[in-house]
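Weekly sync, protein design subgroup
Attendees: M.S., D.O., the rotation student, P.L. (late)

Item 1: inverse folding check
M.S. brought a backbone from last month's batch and wanted to see whether the design step gives back something sensible before we order anything. D.O. pointed out we never logged the input encoding, so this time it goes straight into the notes. Structure tokens as presented (336 positions):
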């Protein structure tokens, strides 16, 4: 198992390198850069002429290497990551990109993991109920819920909830994790409840889509395994229906769901990012949108690289979970 994990981790390095190159090139492909943003700001705020504003923008471009060819800019960026662990400086936020990552990524991961835990727990439980109550009203209702969860766009659900909160319920503290009185206060039950009050729409929307998928997968696979001979044998030996389901049918029905864990973390991250953009929470999503809007390539490329890394880490976690669940997979990894 350790040798298998070592090979998978080593294989991540060239993949990350290729992904970083492709990401950087795609980000730089559209015309314009952060110098254009500076020029526009000088013309709008200071009333400078186009020529003067462009000259100031060119000075900034030369100072920060934006006039260098794209391959040189990429080598400078990736070289800093490899040699010093330095992701460069943010032009817009005027601070190292590593500081922005440290500020925004933990909150993003916290929300994504919370959504993943709730989606797995609720989705698997409802999937078991739906499969064991096939064609009854419970199964029909849960199937309708799963259909809605997989078809309603998350950004649309976020806009609807935001409209209700602001225009119907007159909510004023939208776009932050805490109320003003709890911003710098030490952690307490009251502060935690205030956090829940601010982030529940993001958690609910991202969780809803995840649990819908989990429910459908568990229901479909559990219906197949419930008719297998080993489950019938367990029933014939006197095992209760719940015991036959939980001890024999469910572990094998979870295989596709465990393999899905390889992409579920990026899925939950993107779900959190979509809704966080709508609610303007200080997480990764708004930072990516803002950096792309102004041409802050270092921030955009770094966060895209981190999202790609989460996909590969998720695949490794899925392989380990599948090996723990299925002895046949453990044997294959031991041989490999």
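Designed sequence read out in the meeting:
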């Amino acid at each position: 198992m350790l040798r298998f994990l070592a090979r998978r981790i080593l294989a991540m390095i060239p993949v990350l390198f290729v992904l970083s190159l492709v990401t950087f090139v795609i980000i730089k492909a559209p015309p314009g850069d952060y110098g254009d943003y500076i020029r526009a700001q000088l013309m709008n705020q200071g009333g400078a002429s186009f020529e003067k504003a462009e000259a100031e923008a060119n000075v900034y471009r030369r100072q920060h290497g934006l006039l260098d060819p794209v391959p040189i800019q990429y080598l400078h960026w990736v070289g800093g990551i490899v040699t010093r662990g330095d992701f460069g400086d943010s032009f817009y936020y005027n601070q190292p990109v590593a500081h922005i990552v440290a500020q925004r990524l933990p909150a993003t991961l916290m929300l994504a993991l919370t959504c993943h835990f709730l989606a797995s727990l609720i989705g698997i439980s409802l999937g078991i109920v739906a499969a064991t109550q096939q064609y009854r009203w419970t199964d029909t209702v849960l199937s309708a819920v799963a259909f809605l969860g997989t078809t309603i766009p998350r950004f649309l659900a976020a806009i609807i909830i935001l409209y209700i909160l602001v225009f119907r319920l007159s909510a004023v503290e939208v776009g932050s994790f805490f109320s003003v009185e709890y911003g710098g206060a030490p952690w307490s039950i009251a502060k935690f409840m205030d956090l829940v009050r601010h982030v529940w729409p993001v958690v609910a929307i991202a969780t809803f889509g995840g649990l819908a998928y989990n429910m459908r997968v568990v229901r479909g696979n559990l219906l197949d395994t419930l008719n297998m001979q080993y489950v019938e044998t367990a029933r014939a030996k006197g095992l209760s229906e719940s015991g036959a389901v939980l001890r024999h049918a469910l572990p094998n029905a979870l295989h596709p769901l465990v393999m899905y864990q390889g992409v579920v973390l990026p899925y939950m991250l993107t779900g959190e990012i979509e809704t966080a953009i709508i609610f303007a929470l200080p997480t990764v999503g708004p930072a990516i949108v803002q950096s792309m809007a102004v041409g802050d390539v270092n921030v955009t490329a770094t966060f895209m690289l981190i999202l790609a890394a989460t996909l590969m880490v998720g695949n490794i976690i899925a392989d380990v979970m599948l090996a723990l669940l299925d002895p046949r997979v453990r044997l294959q990894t031991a041989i490999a």
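Discussion: Strands lie at 89-90, 95-96. The mean pLDDT is 85.
Action: P.L. to compare against the previous round before Friday.
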